[in-house]
């Protein structure tokens, strides 16, 4: 097993401390485990060499609120799941470190992060509430504690989810960079005496790395955390209008090099891997091999909102199942692959597996035609197209990634096969002596044949 020695970390307070013995002696395998895919196998988590699990997400605005629900009944539905998942992991996988992720792409930065950093009082309240959560200061925790926290602010300094609907003020980059550093400093000072971890998730696209442009401030940010999860996926996303790889070896290497050049120590880096493919609706004629470099329809509107002309497909086995010859009646409104249930006429089976008749169920990119009522579904059968992509991919050996173009429905696909996962481990993680690997997310893997996770663990 490779050994990655992490250096001593100097905090903003000038206090020197070492990271945990586990981090100092062995590479990390960090898995996000999210509330939208909550049924990952505990046996799989415990048996694949996973060192850290990060439960995702708690929304940041719950932690800068004066009234924090001690029973965890008034918060987001997923929050109670986080506590139950923590308890289950601690019982079944006692050697795995379990952290809580705060933030995420769906987190509203205006009422969350920005409110948190606007005053010392708000920042102190956030850290106080976070401390209570991480240390299990509620009866529901039954004396269990988190081992750390992952701060997933997407993205301080600009290009957040509201980048068009709430344009950045001229001084926002400076204010959010300073506030981000101060937030991490405060959390680090609170957690480090007990050896709890502080990690951050950071963007993979250079255009989103605004908070790290100032080398001195980047240095203080990096010094305050135990490790950094590089989101080296979604490098192609809905803000683009020409198809490209979303997680190629070439693109992943460029991101890793960018952070190394900004002064991030290699031992602190966890290279990110995606357990899903991405797709986009191509406009016009596309004759390029594998669909790379073709124009797409607008993937977001004038306010930056999703047009649902693009999306993702997880590696879960259910997404490759054949459509059954006969269907069952939906139980509690559940439908789609894995259930065998079809919605009644006039109702659509959403990509999330629920029957309904709203645009969220029937709209383009959100509907599963074979499991929907007759003529009620708009758009293509994404699952059929995905199976075609898996059967006949185009291997871009230069960039290091698979693509596929479906001419029938004008759909472009991009994803990582196992061989490029292994190549990233060898050429990037090992060759550059990085601290380990990270993947989003556990429940998106094919639990029956977890070949991506197996490649990471090996």
TrEMBL record:
One of its GO terms (cellular component) is extracellular region. Residues 1-21 form the signal peptide. GO terms for biological process: chitin catabolic process; polysaccharide catabolic process. It catalyses: Random endo-hydrolysis of N-acetyl-beta-D-glucosaminide (1->4)-beta-linkages in chitin and chitodextrins. Its EC number is 3.2.1.14. Disulfide bonds join 343-355, 348-362. Keywords: Carbohydrate metabolism, Chitin degradation, Chitin-binding, Disulfide bond, Glycosidase, Hydrolase, Polysaccharide degradation, Signal. Residues 27-458 form the GH18 domain. SUPFAM superfamilies: (Trans)glycosidases (SSF51445), Plant lectins/antimicrobial peptides (SSF57016). Transmembrane segments: none annotated. One of its GO terms (molecular function) is endochitinase activity. Residues 332-379 form the Chitin-binding type-1 domain. Belongs to the glycosyl hydrolase 18 family. This is chitinase. It comes from Pseudovirgaria hyperparasitica.
